[in-house]
Amino acid sequence: MSDRLHPLLAGFPVRLEIPVAFGDMDALGHVNNTRFFRWFEDVRFAAFIRAGLEEVRGRTGIGPILAHTRCAFRVPVTWPDTILAGVRVTAIDEDRFTMEHTLVSREKDAVAALGEARIVIVDYGSGRKVPIPPGVREALEELREPPLA
Prior knowledge:
The chain is built from three helices and six strands; from the N terminus they run βααβββββα. By secondary structure, the chain is α+β, with helices and mostly antiparallel strands.
């Protein structure tokens, strides 16, 4: 994202700028609601990379799965527009963490959607939950807002 932080994303340590594609719209002339979940995924995956989850997954076979997600739609989005997506960690437990998402329409200068995701750490080989690896836990703490002192 550009260096200019949108005020509606203050407090979100991971942010992406995502252009809305014409093909994202549906027959009703606005972006289909399923696309919002993809935008959440895009910024969430950027946070996973920043927290080292992809490196750990490649090395150990331990990584994240999406256990739960939800979205509250606020304003419709249409093409052309740019979505400013932000994510932050709101809770960390032994084997899971929760993330909060915000999508801002640059064109409307308004929050387009708010979301939440619960991520569970699993051993992909066994399919069982495992504790969050220590290095990842510390990185996730840095993605909280406000940061813990």
